[in-house]
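Consider the tokenized backbone below.
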């Protein structure tokens, strides 16, 4: 999944991953994380997700990163906000109200870029990446988040041989392998969603589950 793949999807408006409403698992599980209002939440590979608006309405500041300038322009336009632009080594920062979205590559973010983040929300980010990039994503982007940072990761589980990603399948074993030592992932819920996903049924996928994980950055040993 090189950047060109995603740029083309946004240019052509092929953004079936974008949801017209807030992710239900976010609404169900966010408050239990106990993050105070005013704290900053990192939303990697954010697209123009309405989850960012929901997080802001809970009193959070939101730091997103997204490759596509089209997505970020559309996000601010749909929120009726005119962002100010600022360029750094990470990309072009778009800022308005509680939102700061960097048009840039998530893999270029370092500890300094993410130092303010107390929370993190990943929907359709980890599962948007093929296996080798998932390793880099956990080992580089997530590794740059500060100690005590906590959040949710939403995954999909299905037999990968039955359908090509994205979205990719990421099972419990892989969650442990990617995040186990540093983030102590805890499964909060898993539900069968095959009946609501016609594209998976058409592809002949026999089983599909959505899983929600709680992660918290552990102190370094
Ligand atoms: C499947 S979409 C999910 C978007 C959003 N999380 C949502 O729930 O609607 C994945 C997004 O990640 C962006 N993306 C892919 N690779 C990226 C990278 N390396 N850095 C920043 N954004 C990236 C794509 O442009 C796309 O908008």
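A designed sequence for it:
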């Amino acid at each position: 999944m090189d950047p060109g793949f995603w740029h083309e999807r946004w240019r052509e408006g092929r953004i079936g991953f974008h949801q017209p409403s807030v992710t239900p698992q976010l609404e169900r599980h966010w408050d239990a994380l106990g993050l105070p209002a005013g704290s900053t939440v990192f939303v990697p590979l954010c697209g123009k997700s309405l989850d960012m608006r929901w997080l802001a309405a809970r009193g959070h500041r939101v730091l997103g990163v997204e490759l596509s300038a089209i997505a970020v322009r559309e996000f601010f336009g749909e929120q009726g906000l005119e962002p100010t632009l600022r360029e750094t080594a990470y990309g072009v920062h778009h800022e308005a109200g509680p939102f700061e979205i960097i048009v840039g590559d998530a893999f270029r973010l370092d500890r300094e870029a993410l130092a303010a983040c107390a929370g993190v929300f990943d929907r359709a980010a980890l599962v948007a990446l093929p296996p080798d990039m998932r390793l880099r994503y956990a080992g580089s982007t997530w590794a740059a988040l500060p100690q005590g940072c906590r959040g949710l990761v939403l995954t999909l589980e299905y037999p990968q041989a039955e359908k090509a990603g994205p979205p990719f399948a990421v099972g419990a074993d892989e969650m442990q392998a990617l995040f186990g030592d540093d983030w102590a992932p805890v499964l909060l819920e898993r539900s069968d969603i095959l009946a609501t996903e016609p594209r998976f049924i058409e592809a002949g996928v026999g089983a599909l589950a959505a899983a929600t994980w709680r992660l918290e950055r552990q102190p370094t040993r």
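Residues 172-183 form the longest helix (12 residues).
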